[in-house]
Design brief:
The complex is a heterodimer of chains A (270) and B (350). Chain A is mostly helical. Chain A has a domain of 176 residues: MetI-like (MetI-like fold). Chain B is an alpha+beta fold. Chain B folds into 2 domains: 232 residues, P-loop containing nucleotide triphosphate hydrolases (Rossmann fold), CATH 3.40.50.300; 113 residues, RNA polymerase II/Efflux pump adaptor protein, barrel-sandwich hybrid domain (OB fold (Dihydrolipoamide Acetyltransferase, E2P)). In chain B, the strands form 4 sheets. Chain B has a 6-stranded mixed beta sheet, with helices on both faces. A 5-stranded antiparallel beta sheet of chain B has the order 2-1-4-5-6, covered by helices on one side. In chain B, strands 14-18-15-16-17 form a 5-stranded antiparallel beta sheet. In chain B, α2 packs across α3 and α3 crosses α4. The longest helix of chain B is centred in the middle third of the chain and has 17 residues. Classes of the chains: A mainly alpha (270), B alpha+beta (350). At the A-B interface, α10 and α11 of A face β7 and α2 of B.
Chain lengths: 270, 350
């Protein structure tokens, strides 16, 4: 056994695999290294305290957190329905709710606009009944991010539910627990690590959301201009500011990875 | 009658059609091979599976009555269930596991906690309530699961292969604990098992289930002395020979003939205990009435003896000492003479 491991970790990587693999690493790592090299380290403080940056960062953190909260409240029950219920058309339902995973976010933004915009099916009703308009507000930012990020949470939690032993739910039933009590006191605590991982993924995805946000919520500093949008605009006017903002997002991404390392990196290494 | 159930369920190819009745304080063992429908029965009794037809009634209350569309949800049934793998909730302490059923049924936290501690002491787990289930041994976990099932004072206790996941030595100690608590338990108990030793040690009555139907019912002693199917005979270590009695002899359906002590008539079973069979290389002198030339099909160590499977007109199982087996120098395929005293053959009607 140990000899086989030795062979596998040894120098015997065939050249046709070694060269593309090395190129792939370079391709993935070099841009990030370039970002660090070109960073205006001396003026970083000034860049990050410039007006607009703070508000963009705050808006991003608040909206991504709100989108994650909405995703948890709606997505965990959805994952339960997909994993545990026996309703008809479950496979179709699963396919439908995971569409946003593969849909270009801009398309998602357009779709949201068509439904929730002032002329949209739901949007016009909201406007007439409550005088509420959603597009180009912070609410629109949260909705766009939730639309794109919630499927990540649903898929992650559904996987955790499927891996969890459903016999514990039978045990709970024989101990007098109805299905809601069973969900709260048995199922949810048992899949808590999966929910946490899904929430982190969802939050990271929401934080980086660009396409759906700029399409549906626009680009108003203070209300809808999130970090990714700010980076994109800054790149056209003052590249140094774009680099500084990118560094912040990179730091957040690395922190996310650190949070999840036991779950994924640890498993890959094992 | 405390539990009365007529259960009809179709599970894939298996049609389960089982009627059971269990009195208060009585333990009924449902004994049968895997896939016989035992687990289906217990899941129906627990309410985890709705029967296709029939009814389940406990203390006069209908839990299931398909004709009247009655199906009580599992959490509304006052029952306790112990599963094969203890299935203690891994995220709760042992004490919280035991208290779980009380809490869901509305007992206040402190009272539930106190009851859990009391029950942990009764199953000899005092002081382990603060542990996580992963920190318990298999036997301790199963005892905690028993306490969890009994703490709510259920009307019906269901035991689904409660000992089969345990190693042989642990099984002995847990069986003793189980035996003590079953004796003290006032409600009805249904024990599902494929181990006849569990059934004999724990049950007041046994039903043997094969392919979804009861093939034999009786006290453990009756069932083990007078098995009616090959499955039970094999379990209790008897050779079961179906035949037709005439005078002091049984003509076997398989062709051979067995001499017995008393007059018999009509379709009967002749049952032979392995330790009463003697083996010889040559036909024994001054011969007893039952001597057959047979062939050794296989031999496996069995305790301090060797269990020999014999084929021929009178298929038998014989237990011989290891020394005798070595002296005979038997190998599979060898021809041997098997002898049994007529007085050692049990005969009972089919």
């Amino acid at each position: 056994m140990s000899r086989r491991d030795g062979e596998r970790t040894g120098a015997g990587v065939p050249l046709p695999l070694m060269v593309p693999a090395a190129l792939a690493v370079a391709f993935l790592v070099l841009p990030l290294a370039g970002l660090l090299v070109r960073a205006p380290w001396s003026g970083l403080g000034a860049q990050l305290t410039a007006p607009g940056v703070g508000s963009a960062l705050r808006l991003s953190l608040v909206s991504a957190t709100a989108a994650t909260a909405v995703s948890l409240v709606l997505g965990v029950p959805l994952a339960w329905v997909l994993a545990r219920s026996r309703i008809r058309g479950r496979a179709v339902l699963r396919a439908l709710v995971t569409v946003p995973l593969v849909l270009p976010p801009v398309v998602g933004g357009v779709a949201l606009f068509l439904v929730l915009g002032r002329q949209g099916v739901v949007g016009s009703w909201l406007d007439e009944t409550f005088g509420v308009t959603i597009p180009f507000t912070t609410t629109a930012v949260v909705i766009a991010q939730t639309f794109v990020a919630m499927p990540f949470l649903v898929v992650s939690v559904e996987g955790a539910l499927r891996a969890a032993d459903a016999r514990f739910e039978d045990v709970a039933a024989t101990l007098g627990a109805d299905r809601w009590t069973t969900f709260r006191r048995v199922t949810l605590p048992m899949v808590a690590p999966g929910v946490a991982a899904g929430a982190v993924l969802c939050w990271a995805r929401a934080l980086g959301e660009f396409g759906a946000t700029i399409t549906f919520a626009g680009n108003f500093p203070g209300t809808t201009q999130t970090m990714p949008v700010a980076v994109y605009l800054a790149l056209q006017r003052e590249p140094e500011a774009a680099v500084a903002l990118s560094l912040v997002l990179l730091a957040v991404s690395l922190a996310t990875l650190l949070l999840l390392r036991d779950r994924w990196l640890g498993r890959a290494a094992a | 009658m405390s539990l009365a159930a007529q259960v009809r369920v179709q599970r894939g190819m298996l049609h389960v059609e089982l009627d059971v009745e269990v009195a208060d304080g009585e333990v009924l063992a449902v004994l049968g091979p895997n896939g016989a429908g035992k687990s289906t029965l217990i899941r129906v009794l627990a309410g985890l599976l709705a029967p296709d037809a029939g009814r389940v009634e406990v203390d006069g209350v209908p839990w299931d009555d398909v004709a009247r569309s009655v199906h009580l949800a599992p959490h509304r049934r006052p029952l306790g269930m112990v599963f094969q793998d203890a299935l203690l909730f891994p995220h709760l302490s042992v004490a919280d596991n035991v208290a779980f059923g009380l809490r869901t049924r509305g007992t206040a936290r402190a009272a539930a906690r106190a009851a859990a501690e009391r029950w942990l002491a009764r199953v000899e787990l005092d002081g382990l309530g603060g542990r996580r289930p992963a920190e318990l041994s298999g036997g301790q976990a199963q005892r905690a699961a028993l306490a969890r099932a009994l703490v709510g004072d259920p009307a019906l206790l269901l035991l689904d292969e409660p000992l089969s996941a345990l190693d042989a030595r642990t099984r002995l100690t847990v069986r003793a604990v189980l035996r003590r608590h079953l004796a003290a338990f006032a409600g009805s108990t249904v024990l599902v098992t494929h181990d006849p030793v569990d059934a004999m040690a724990l049950a007041d009555r046994v039903v043997v289930v094969e392919e979804g139907r009861v093939v034999q019912a009786g006290t453990p002693v009756e069932v083990s002395r007078r098995p009616r199917t090959d499955y039970v005979a094999r379990l209790v270590g008897l050779s079961l020979l179906p035949g037709t009695g005439k005078g002091r002899s049984v003509r076997l359906d398989g062709g051979g003939e067995v001499a017995v002590a008393d007059e018999v008539a009509g379709p009967v079973f002749a049952a032979v205990r392995p330790e009463t069979v003697a083996l010889y290389l040559a036909r024994p002198e001054g011969s007893p009435r039952n001597v057959w030339p047979l062939r050794l099909a296989g031999a496996v160590p069995h305790g301090t003896t060797v269990r020999c499977e014999l084929e021929g007109a009178v298929p038998l199982v014989a237990d011989v000492t290891a020394t005798a087996f070595a002296e005979l120098g038997l190998a599979p395929g060898a021809e041997v003479w098997a002898a049994v005293k007529a007085s050692e053959v049990a005969v009972y009607a089919r």
